[in-house]
Amino acid sequence: MDLIFLGIQGSGKGTQARLLADQFGLLIFETGKEFRKIAEQDTALGRQIKATIDAGKLVPYDLPPRIAEEFVQQLGPDQRVIFDGVPREIPQAELFWPMLAKYKRDYLLVNFLLTEAEGIRRLTGRLNCPNPQCNAIYPADEKSATCAKCGSTLEKRVDDADLASIKQRMSIFIKQTMPVIEEQKVLGRAIEINAQQSVEAVYQDLLEALAARGVISTNQ
């Protein structure tokens, strides 16, 4: 079963995705990472996506499902995936769910619950690895100036340095992404995790919730 990780900005879903992927051998399709890689390219699409990201807006709704399908096409039937940050709106979901069904991929959505105030506190301080092949994220109190994974110099993302951009992204999440989550809750395909806690506590809650749904075995 594949997992869909959604949560308001700063919820730490990317960190949880990496922890789960490392322990259970899942692959991660990270929407933001894929788009940041495209934004690095000096192409019309790259410049368009860069401007959209810098403004704190969403990319065209039909683009993430298309890129996700290219990713899925390369997988074996037993390879499980964490889709981090997609689908983010109802029109996008209407393309994404049929794509998963086309490849006979079952899924469970995980919503990481966090208040806007805590999200802003986390985002305005966090550091990011600028290497598009890495994109590791570090908390504000990170003592090293370099990425522990690849050695790149850590920096703030443009869209994290601007408070107005952060608030705009949060507003979009509430207005456009929450309806996707609510729809899946009605269908019994969504669970919620309290992301206000420490990384370790959130991960423990995540493991217990996934085990209760039969998605993972905690003996692994």
Please explain how this structure is put together.
It is found in: Cytoplasm. The chain is α/β, with parallel strands linked by helices and 220 residues long. It has a domain at 2-114 and 178-212: 3-Layer(aba) Sandwich (Rossmann fold), CATH 3.40.50. Helices cover 48% and strands 14% of the residues. It is built from nine helices and seven strands, in the order βαβαααβαβαββααβα. It has helices spanning 13-24, 31-39, 44-54, 63-73, 90-102, 116-123, 158-161, 163-186, 199-212, and strands spanning 2-7, 27-30, 81-84, 107-113, 127-128, 137-138, 190-194. A hairpin with an 8-residue loop joins strand 5 and strand 6 (137-138). Helix 2 packs across helix 3 (44-54) and helix 4 packs parallel to helix 5. The longest helix is centred in the last third of the chain and has 24 residues, at 163-186. It starts with a strand and ends in an 8-residue tail after the last helix.
